[in-house]
Amino acid sequence: MALSRTSIFSDFVTYKPKFREDFEAFLDLAPEQKCALIPFVLELLAAETTDETEKIRARIPGEIEGTLTELLSALNVLHFMATEWNAIRDTPEAFLKDLESVDLLKDDRRDEGRAFFAEFLKHLADDRKRRLDKLFAHSLLPSYGGMTTLIDLRAVFDNPYGQTDLETVSAYSPRCTNWVPVVLVKILRDRGTPTTFEFQCEESQVRRMIDHLTAALKDLKAAESELRK
């Protein structure tokens, strides 16, 4: 195999057979099905959370005709290629040469495949500004990868154990007087260790977090407005 010219194929020898199978499923799609997948790929690239990606994928059966498993396999291939695409270093010409050097485009499909990927890469080029902005914005610290929340109930006891020096376990007789709801929050990071940050908070603290984030959004809009002048 010739030396790869693009980031997508830099580790091609380590790819599992499933990648080639999914690529074959992609090639088997009709031209209109292939083109219909491009907007979904671009949406997945811009998605910030797992919930967003699941909602995007869930729309495919209602918007593209065809076998769902084949469409999802093709989408996985295109999304993987788009994710690995280096907005600074890679070029469409080098990518097309790589496709042939790793024997993914057979002679009978070469022209059709080259035509599609030439169009596909135009869309990635149009997405270049967003990807560069994200690359430099996230270059120093881990970034937000998603969030989960859960409501938990904490029991309140009338006389918690250990409040007096004279108390013994044998004499301890707790009575539950109330339940206090709290929010358990888990924030996912896109890289680094640990991959998650967990904490609990009460309603007033949740509202303060929302206020701070709302203020941060206003700060961002003000900064963006100033940059456009």
Question: Could you write a compact summary of the structure shown?
Answer:
52% of the residues lie in helices and 15% in strands.
What report would you give on this structure?
- The chain is 52% helix and 15% strand.
- Helix 1 crosses helix 5 (68-84), helix 2 (31-46) packs across helix 5 and helix 2 runs parallel beside helix 7.
- It is α+β, with helices and mostly antiparallel strands and 229 residues long.
- It is elongated, with a radius of gyration of 26 Å.
- The chain folds into two domains: 7-137, no CATH class; 144-227, no CATH class.
- The model has no long low-confidence stretch (mean pLDDT 84).
- It has nine helices and three strands; from the N terminus they run ααααααααβββα.
- It starts with 16 loop residues before the first helix and ends with a helix.
- Strands 1-2-3 form a three-stranded antiparallel beta sheet.
- The chain has helices at 17-28, 31-46, 50-58, 60-63, 68-84, 92-101, 110-126, 128-137, 203-227, and strands at 144-157, 176-189, 196-201.
